[in-house]
Amino acid sequence: MISILPVYGLPEIAAGDELGAMISAAIQVVDGDVVVVAQKAVSKAEGRVLRLAEIEPSDEARRRAGDSSDPRKLEAILRETKRVVRSRNALVIAETRHGFVCASAGVDQSNAPEAGMLVLLPLDADASARRIRDEIRERSGADVAVVVSDSFGRPFRRGTTDVAIGVAGLAPLLDLRGSADRAGYVLSSSQVALADELAGAADLARGKADGVPAVVIRGAAISGDGSAAELVIPAERDLFR
Amino acid sequence: MISILPVYGLPEIAAGDELGAMISAAIQVVDGDVVVVAQKAVSKAEGRVLRLAEIEPSDEARRRAGDSSDPRKLEAILRETKRVVRSRNALVIAETRHGFVCASAGVDQSNAPEAGMLVLLPLDADASARRIRDEIRERSGADVAVVVSDSFGRPFRRGTTDVAIGVAGLAPLLDLRGSADRAGYVLSSSQVALADELAGAADLARGKADGVPAVVIRGAAISGDGSAAELVIPAERDLFR
User: Fold this and answer.
1) Mind telling me how many Å the CA of A2 is from chain B's nearest CA?
2) Which of chain B's residues have a Cβ under 8 Å away from the Cβ of A240?
3) What is the pLDDT of residues B121-156, one digit of tens each?
4) Could you tell me if A109 and A34 lie in one domain?
């Protein structure tokens, strides 16, 4: 059996907060737990926020924003964008510095610490996950894995699902290639995006508007270690560039 | 807390099997449970299998198969394909009759009942889910929701995640639009693909090679009813066509 446990009682996160220490104080974790932490909480703790009032929009940001959007927000999005993958009006599907493809390069106004603020993705969410993991081990003695999650839209399918943008203490891909099914077939194209499924499972226990930034998944089969960069399809194999 | 419970002890599925009855006999379900059933099991129970030896490949199938693939398998894939979305060599990313976009139009040789067999997607996986739901209610008295799941690849991200291709007894999209976050912002683009997150969570409890075709998720917040067709982005809003 796998259990999904929301971590209640965490305060609103502020810059400089030690998330791992806060999570350790709020819930008793054990070896093998996966602690899934929402990107917004991580970004706020790391001070990855921007004040709209301090952003000077470029001409391109003004052009993309048109009459219906805030050009300062578009400017923040473009600064976080390595490549515009698709766009329509003010909507930008961007490739981020990390190689992730998502709406608005992950720049978000909802759940910002105060009005007029934007929250950006962590600069290195694997490093964020490692830091949280180390803090948890220091405080609780438990050897957990950590996933930093964010809500991404998907081509072809409506609605967002939470996916992993940073990992520590687990291999994000579960490689079933070479394992045989019941009839003796060798499974060919079977790499499971385990870290994404963990992130999505955690979201089931966390109403988005409810402010539950951390969720513990207990009993999942994890192993190894790795980086969320492994979840990005290399450009030469990407049929949707 | 949410619990994910694999259903052990189900036999190999054969055409004509009543999956809902078999699941009810193998695990005690309660009102509000979500029963996630793997597409392969559903398709086998519905006789949605093809014998390779009985397929006559078309010229297009031969051309796409080249020297490295079985043209009979390509023929089966093309028959299940409404639109070829992308292709490279023998790999076809297809839109299915249901509107889903996935590799090989969902045609799969792994976990087939015997050598030389292909498993196709159910013709109407919502109807499959409703049938299983009704059988479970009849046998156990419990009012559960059912999700039929399959492993899909995703553009931009490596590895598959399980997603919903059929639902009964739950709304597949959780609409957070209009709900306010902690700072009072109204969340704008927040529809969560709840049924996909449920399917992915179930996969965590099911090793692909292990033959656990059904998983029960207990304690998730579900409501309403709907169709997996709601998870398909309408053509006019699809930036990736």
Assistant:
1) 5
2) 86, 155-156, 240
3) 999 999 999 999 999 999 999 999 999 999 999 999
4) no
Mutate to test the interface with A, among B77, B92, B110 (most CBs of A within 10 A): B110
Which residues of chain B does A34 touch, with a Cβ-Cβ cutoff of 8 Å? none
Structural domains counted in chain B? 2
* A80 and A131 belong to one structural domain: no
Other beta carbons within 10 Å of A40:
25
CA distance B171 to B148: 14
ipTM of the complex: 0.94
| Residue B47 confidence (pLDDT) above 60 | yes
How many Å apart are CA A66 and CA A125, to the nearest integer? 32
| Residue finishing a domain among B121, B140, B156 | B121
- A54 alpha-carbon distance from chain centroid: 26
- Is A62 in the same domain as A137? no
Same domain, B81 and B197: no
Residue after which a domain boundary falls, among A119, A135, A157 = A119
Q: Count CB-CB contacts under 10 A for residue B226.
A: 16
Specify if B240 maps to a domain.
Answer: no
Q: Domain containing B112: what range? A: 49-121
Q: Is B108 helix (H, G, I), strand (E, B) or coil?
A: strand
User: Which tokens sit at A118?
Assistant: 């934007």
For chains A and B, CB pairs below 8 A equal 236
Query: Tell me: the pLDDT tens digits for A95-146?
Result: 999 999 999 999 998 766 777 899 999 999 999 999 999 999 999 999 999 9
Which candidate in B8, B51, B91, B156 is best for mutational testing of the A interface (most A CBs within 10 A)? B156
Which pLDDT value is given to residue A109?
Answer: 86
The rounded distance, in Å, linking the Cα atoms of B65 and B57 is: 10
Mark whether A134 and A88 lie in a shared domain: no
| Contact call for A158 and B173, based on CB within 8 A | yes
Q: Quote the pTM value.
A: 0.95
pLDDT at A211: 72
